[in-house]
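Q: Can someone sanity-check these two? First one:
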Amino acid sequence: MTEEKIIINSGKIRLEGLLKILPGDRGVVVTHPHPLYGGDMHNNVVEAVCRAYQKKGYSTLRFNFRGVGQSEGGYDEGIGEQDDAKAALDYLSDLGKEGIDLAGYSFGSWVNALGINRYKKVKRAIMISPPVDLMDFSCLINNPKIRLVITGSEDEIANHRSVEERVPSWNSEAIFKVIKGADHFYSRSTGDLQKTIDEFLEQD
């Protein structure tokens, strides 16, 4: 079964998404990198995350933030985008999914961090290459939902040392992984990224 094109209502804005429903009550919502720099739901990292979760039997929902692709509206500096993520979580919840993970890559991880306290339906959150030197993650303090943080050893936007310094304040029990040789775009490292997520989900 391939992913199905869907429409998600985020307030008065209609967002496009891709949904794959699998048996059971587990699911994941995946948020994409920066809209102003070409980020969308077809990004290679977003697709790798979806594949990893599908392999473990999770339903997956990826979507385009407002103003991206066929999604209505316009870029809102991470504010309206929080509503978009919540709308996607609600959509998956309304389909009967209860153990919902929230995975964000780069800008997507920042949006998720900003809204995490509002997202009551999120069981766990995964952060991939959070751009901590470019965006303000100070809102994220002692949150047990943050369970896995990943970046690359060659990531010039989410420097692994900068990220590692912050993880303990996000959740002292979160798993931190550095993928050797990976840059911010994971162009040759999506397999390693998928394997890292696979290993995390094995513990479920």
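And here is the second, same format, sequence then tokens:
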Amino acid sequence: MQYHTLVAAAVAAGLLVGNGPASAGWVVDQTIRGSGGSGRQLILIQANRIKSVTLGPDGRPTQGFIMDLGAETLTQIDYQGRFYVSSSLQEYTKAMAAAAQAAATRMAESRKAMEQAMRNVPPERRKAMEEAMRAQTPPPGAPGGPPCVEPKREVRKTGQQATIAGFPAVRWEVLADGKMETEVWVAPGLTVGRELDAARLERVSTTMAKTFACAPTGPGGGADPTWKLVGEGYPVRTVAAEGAMTIEVMRAESRAVPATEFQPPPGFARRSLQEVMQP
């Protein structure tokens, strides 16, 4: 199960929060386009709960992720497999850390075995094996890979404006070591963030980000500059550098969301983190 992908989507959906009285709730319909294809995603937000649902080509849900900021619980739903995994934030981060350590151990053992095998092969074959080892070296920050170095990030507001999904938006830029990394179009009038407690979202998002190597750590830990946009509005279009991925809101509606939407579907089996994270 792709925890990191869905977690990132859910966090991004609620990243830009504001202040003020809670509204009825929000349902945001957005598309994701990238080199790997395109897809559709629904984001439901109400009373400190965020649900992200990935839809298949037929419009049916395939994966879901629920984040309850008040209870600090995470639930991932596999609609095709008809099961779900629910855990506390603490349980999740411990499981992710253990999985990363296990992956690093396996990688180290594999490299050690290959190095021992190279001692008994002719020089010409040894060179090919060394090149294969270099090609298999994990990227910086990945389990078994070299340590990563966070670039210096900053945000910059531009004068560009556009109307996206019917909402006037302003373009912001995220720079990494002075180079363009992401552009974020923020709609001040889309007050989705009023449903979320900014302090709780910050705490949960920061804790989760720390489970991923080289991930932004949020304010206080502080590699993620997008926290400076808190209160500016909601991101209606996010474009990664060189167009690698684009997330764009198609529709956003303020309405009451049934409490059952933030619960696992009836009849689905519950599985443990350990079961679904087996290599």
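A (reply): Looked at the second one. The first strand starts at residue 26 and ends at 34. Residues 141 and 148 are 5 Å apart (CA to CA).
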